[in-house]
Each structure stands twice: as C-alpha cells, then as structure tokens.
Amino acid sequence: MNKTVKFILFFVLPIAIFILWLGGFLSHRVEPGEAKDKGKVVSGLPVLTVEEKEVPNVYKADGMITAENNAKVSTKWMGRILKIYVNEGDYVKAGQTLAVLDDSEIRQQKNEALAGLEELSKARDEALAARKAALENYEFAKRTYERFKNLYQENAVSKQQLEEIETKMVAAKSMVEQVDAKLAQLKAKESQVKAKINQVDIMAGYAVIKAPFDGYVIKKMNDEGDMAAPGMPIFIIGEKKLQFVANLDESLLDKVKVGDTLKVKLGDREVEGKIVEKNPNIDPMNRTFKIKLDIPYSESITSGMYGKILIPISTSKKIVIPKSAVFKWGQLTAVYVVGQDNVIRLTYVKLGEDYGDSVEVLSGIKPGDKIIASQTEKACDGCRLGG
Description:
Elements: H1 3-22, E1 41-42, E2 47-49, E3 52-67, E4 70-73, E5 79-84, E6 91-92, E7 97-101, H2 104-153, H3 159-206, E8 208-210, E9 215-220, E10 227-228, E11 235-239, E12 242-249, E13 261-266, E14 269-278, E15 288-295, E16 306-322, E17 327-329, E18 332-338, E19 344-348, E20 350-355, E21 358-363, E22 370-372, E23 384-385
Parallel strand pairs: 1-23
Antiparallel strand pairs: 2-22, 3-12, 3-16, 4-11, 5-7, 5-10, 6-9, 7-8, 9-11, 12-15, 13-14, 13-16, 14-15, 16-21, 17-18, 18-19, 18-22, 20-21
C-alpha cells in the first residue's frame, strides 16, 4: 500500500466521517414543524362564571383599641427598681405586686427610729423610778411638815424648824414636778418617734408597686435597675373593658349615632362594636369628630391595637369573587381562567376591597369569564380541564 492510500485511509477518511457526524448526517433527523402539546388534564375543579354584584361602598377610618379607664401607676418614693414581676400584655388583679423598689434607706430609717424608741423607753423607765422615789420623799416630807405644824401650834417647835421642814417639802414636791415634766417630754418624743415609724412604714409601702384594679399592663415604662422618680409612671394599667376610638370625617356626622353597631377590622379579623359616645364638635384642624365603640372582651384583643372602622355609606356593582379563587405568588395575585377550549390560563389580577370571604377585582378579568373557584393548588397554567 502506497503512502497516498495510507494517508486517505488513516487521516482524510476519519476526519470526513467526524465532520459528517457533527453535522448530524449520520443520525435520524426530525422534520421541522410545530410540536403539538396536549397538556396535563386536571379534573374535579369547580368553575364559576364571573359576574358583577351589588356590594356596599365602605368608609374606612383608622382607630385604636383603648381601655375604658387607664391608670398611670407611679410611686412617691425615689429608688432603684429591684424587680419587675409583669410584662406588657399581662392580666393583673387589684393589689397584685407589679414591682419592688430598693427600700434599704427606708429600713435604715426605721431601724434608727426603733433604736431611738428603745432608748426613750429606757429613759422613761428610769424617770418613772425617779418619780417613785421623789414622790415617796415628798409624801414623807409632807407628813413631817404636818406633824411639825401641829407641834408648832402647840409651841413644841420653833417657827424656824417649821419653815425648814416646809422648805424640804416644797423641794420634794418640786422634784416630783421636774420628774413629771421630764416624763411629759419623753412622752412627746416617743409620740414623735412613733409618728416617724408610721411615716416610714407608709414610705415602705411606696417601695412596693401594686395594681390599682383588675386590668392589663398596657405599657411598661421602666426596666429593672432603672431609677423610679416620684410621680413618674412606671406602668400604665388598663381596665378589662375595651373601646375602639376613631375620628370620622365631618360628612358622616349625621350618618352615625349613639347605639349604632359598626364593624371594626383588627388585622385579619372583624368584630362588632356599639357606639357609646359621639363628640359632635368638629376638630377645625382636620375636620373630623370622635366616636367611641364598646368592643366585646377577648384575650387576643388588647389595648393599643390598631384597626379600621367600617361604615357602609352606599352600594354599587363590582366584580367580586371568592378569596378561594385567588392564587398568590409572592406579592402577585392571580386567578386561573378557563378558556373556551377548556385550557386553564394563569391570569394576574388587581384586587380591591375586602368583603369577608370575598374580594373585589379591579382588573384582569371581566364579567362572563370562567375561573377556577377553589382548589387552585391543583390547577396549573396550560393544563386542560377535564370532565
């Protein structure tokens, strides 16, 4: 075999075959055209026809849940807060201890007062013993004077002797009076010390912060270790009875009245409240007036919660669909629209007002469209609806 044939067989031919393989000439080729995709078939999904419904137009106003009565709990004693026993939102009973302040200075004052009272007690005992001795001396001097007086009248003793005995009697009486005066002073001091002890006991009560009535801890103003100052609130306690307070536009002044029942939206829930107070005076700054509604008690509703009051003012026709028909994808909302060919298409929509289990659709679908009413997790874009 010559060199030319070897070159063709071992070099040119392999390269030619490799080029043909890369170009697809050695494999089966699919004819060009549009692929037909039958799509996945889903069954058992409820379908509804979109239509307009008469629904109320609702005026919404921001408001807040408050306790009917609030109390700012403070102390008359300046001291460091040693312990706080409650947290915001806790329910407390009247007289329950909320916090304890450092009362070491109070206890020191009381110990000093008690020590002073004990010293006064000893001094009083000594004075009473001295009075007893002085009184006995006076009684003896008095009897001696009476005897010498009789002897003087009988000329048995001289006038000088009688006057000497009288002087001793007067001196003994004076001693008794001095001791009585000292006892009076001790009694006055004892009363002062006892009054101070009572005052210290009252001050000790200021170091224990207690709930003034049954209610909730709306706000805790301090933490353990903070200094509590007289008159500065440590807690805000609200009663169990709750109210919703809102400011309404002046155009609604004649549309609401005391006794009306209105809905209040608190997050994802709605409650009903009765208007118990209406201030007809219009605020010139924002042209609103204030109303208060009694809210039924619930452990999950606490003072300070934000909400909206809902007031129906008129009606109009809107596209309203069940919330179960809405498919949420992140921040986007959509529905599954069923075409005339029974193919399901994911269609993005813009939602409006909330009506409990239903919601308004502002754009994306129109009356007459058919959509999947529920079980949207079973649907898919491009699927075919089966029987």
